[in-house]
């Protein structure tokens, strides 16, 4: 089958929680098993998820290790490693894997870190409940009390010097334009 012109919509948990219904939109929809784990049992999101899977409108797939490694490396480059869950990494890796298979993937998510890494690897994204990021960000972690700086991928949660919880901020002068589809409804109508 020729996938070169096929679009694939990859769903993050936030898309399902925000009300995205794969049954109502044409096209191929994908997600990862860990998304199901993040949805509250017997919620409307859970019902939509189960029905979409049962009707073949949502394919649940585990990404390969190569794609996962590439995503982790890209997340480190922009400084989002610390802020991405295993589910987030898998959603991104699945989209990257679909891209290597000739699909044009679109991640539907309101998670800014997923959007930032998606942009880093050249994958389009669309938001449902938020405006989404306007530019790619490179992060640094810092202590708001003593202003000590830490690498963005540091596992440190508190400052080594004063014990204050660390925060993050974008590194000045390190932003890039983004690849974003907006609003999502227009993107979907172009898939038919």
Concise description?
The chain is an alpha/beta fold. It has helices spanning 13-17, 33-38, 44-54, 65-78, 86-100, 112-120, 184-189; strands at residues 7-11, 28-31, 58-60, 104-108, 124-126, 135-136, 139-142, 149-150, 167-170, 176-177.
Structure description:
The chain is α/β, with parallel strands linked by helices and 192 residues long. It has 2 domains: 7-134 and 177-189, Rossmann fold (3-Layer(aba) Sandwich), CATH 3.40.50; 139-173, no CATH class. The protein is 34% helix and 18% strand. The chain has 7 helices and 10 strands. The strands form 3 sheets. The protein has a 5-stranded parallel β-sheet with strand order 3-2-1-4-5. Strand 7 (139-142) and strand 8 form a beta hairpin. Helix 4 packs across helix 5 (86-100). The chain is elongated and about 55 Å long. It starts with 6 loop residues before the first strand and ends with a helix.
Q: Using the coordinates above, name the CATH class of the largest domain.
A: Alpha Beta
* Helix count, DSSP H or I runs of 4 or more residues: 7
If you compute it from the alpha carbons, what radius of gyration comes out, rounded to the nearest whole angstrom? Answer: 17 Å
CATH topology of the largest domain: Rossmann fold
Named at the architecture level, the CATH assignment of the largest domain is 3-Layer(aba) Sandwich
- Oligomerization state of this entry? single chain
Q: What is the global morphology?
A: elongated
What's the arrangement of strands in the largest beta sheet? Answer: 3-2-1-4-5
Distance between the termini: 18 Å
Total count of domains:
2
CATH superfamily of the largest domain: 5'-nuclease
Summing up helix and strand content along with how strands pair, one would put the structural category as alpha/beta
Q: How many E strands?
A: 10
Strand content: 15-25%
Elements, N to C (H/E): EHEHHEHHEHEEEEEEH
């Amino acid at each position: 089958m020729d996938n070169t012109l096929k679009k694939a919509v990859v769903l993050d948990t936030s898309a399902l929680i925000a009300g995205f219904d794969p049954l109502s939109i044409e096209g191929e929809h994908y997600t990862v098993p860990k998304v199901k784990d993040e949805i509250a049992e017997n919620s409307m999101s859970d019902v939509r998820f189960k029905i979409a899977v049962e009707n073949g409108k949502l394919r649940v797939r585990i990404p390969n290790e190569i794609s996962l490694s590439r995503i982790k490396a890209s997340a480190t480059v922009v400084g989002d490693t610390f802020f991405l869950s295993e589910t987030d990494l898998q959603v991104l890796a699945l989209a990257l894997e679909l891209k290597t298979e000739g699909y044009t993937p679109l991640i539907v998510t309101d998670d800014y870190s997923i959007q930032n890494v998606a942009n880093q690897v050249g994958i389009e994204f669309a938001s449902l409940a938020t405006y989404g990021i306007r530019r790619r960000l490179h992060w640094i972690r810092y202590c708001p009390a003593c202003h000590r700086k830490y690498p963005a991928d540091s596992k440190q949660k508190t400052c080594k010097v004063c014990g204050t919880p660390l925060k993050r901020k974008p590194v000045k002068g390190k932003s890039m334009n983004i690849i974003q589809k907006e609003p999502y409804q227009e993107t979907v109508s172009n898939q038919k």
